[in-house]
Amino acid sequence: MKRIAVLGAGNGGYAIAADLTLAGYQVSLYEGWDKRNLEPVIKAGGIELSGISRTGFARISCVTTDIGVALKDANLIFVATQSLGHEKIADLCASHLEDGQMIILLPGNFGSLLFARILKEKGVTQHVKIAETMTFPFGCRRIVGKAEVRINQFLKLYMAAFPASDTQSVLDNVRELYPSLFSSAKNVIEVALSNPNFFHLPICILNTARIEKAPEGKFYPYSEGFSPSVLRVIEAVWREKDEVLKHLGLTNLFPFEIHRHFFANITPAQAMMTGPDNMRHRMISEDCPCGLVPLAAMGEMLGISTPVTNALITLASEINGVDYYASGRNMKYLGISGMNAAQLNKFFR
């Protein structure tokens, strides 16, 4: 039987830990940031899972704040933290990894490169494979303060390993858990730039005043933050993504037409979903430096213009007083500066 480690006890961590426990796997749930996230699980002895997935009470075999305990004997390690936490998680994992373990970042946003770099710097000699996905495979929400989570949606996703020569091996192991949920992509670039959440920043930037003045802190991005003009800006970002990917011989695995269909068919439940209550929300503070910055930086390196993406990054930087170009996942930060298309593809392969 596979043993699973889930790192991060937010919405996604609760969901995947409960779902795989109910599937019969031994799961360790780790939290190293806000340890209060684990208190309801410890008190209840597990997590109540509802929605369109497996349902019922999942008695998690191990709930811990000790990364070594979480990783011991785990075959698969799912990193379900924000992308901004990848480096800290990699640093914590380094001295506890075992031969044959596989790390899957949900999502990656080029985080697999950061993991590989940090494990190398730490002198890790164990043979560990690292992969990442486009986004999280579930649409889910936990009830804050309670050991309860609901899965509303499954997303069929692409994944790739770094290097891509490891992709099939990781995919075969993950498919034992979820036979039809994941497919292989050509490389990590194709996965990272196909992240569907690039639309978050345009909605937030074009609704800054509404977010900051939201009554009771509630902003509804799909009912009051979306309009035909906003959609045109999102489409422009997608065109720029497509140009960068095309230059590399890659494909946008989440084409814009999916978003067009989504926004044209918002359900009442989706219309009532709340979004950011301030401009430092992760839809800005994570999606900008980890998503749009590498897109713009890679475009600049390859000689491809990304004016709309650059404008959004510039505005987000000004609004939050942070230079996201400098602090985000630019090419130097990822260790791939100065490469042309052929060199990039070879490096990731």
Would you mind describing this structure in some detail?
The protein is of the alpha/beta class and 349 residues long. The protein folds into 2 domains: 186 residues, Rossmann fold (3-Layer(aba) Sandwich), CATH 3.40.50.720; 153 residues, N-(1-d-carboxylethyl)-l-norvaline Dehydrogenase, domain 2. It has 18 helices and 12 strands. Strands 5-2-1-6-7-8-11-12 form an 8-stranded mixed beta sheet, with helices on both faces. A 4-stranded mixed beta sheet has the order 4-3-10-9. Strand 3 and strand 4 form a beta hairpin. Helix 4 runs parallel beside helix 5, helix 10 packs across helix 14 and helix 14 packs antiparallel against helix 15. The model has no long low-confidence stretch (mean pLDDT 95).
Task: Provide a short characterization of the protein structure.
With 349 residues, the protein is of the alpha/beta class.
Write the layout of secondary structure elements.
Layout: E1 3-7, H1 11-22, E2 26-30, H2 39-44, E3 47-51, E4 56-58, E5 62-64, H3 67-71, E6 76-79, H4 86-93, E7 102-105, H5 111-121, E8 129-133, E9 138-142, E10 148-154, E11 157-161, H6 167-175, E12 182-184, H7 188-192, H8 200-205, H9 208-212, H10 228-247, H11 256-264, H12 268-271, H13 282-285, H14 287-302, H15 307-320, H16 324-327, H17 331-334, H18 341-348
Parallel strand pairs: 1-2, 1-6, 2-5, 3-10, 6-7, 7-8, 11-12
Antiparallel strand pairs: 3-4, 8-11, 9-10
Helix pairs in contact: 4-5, 10-14, 14-15
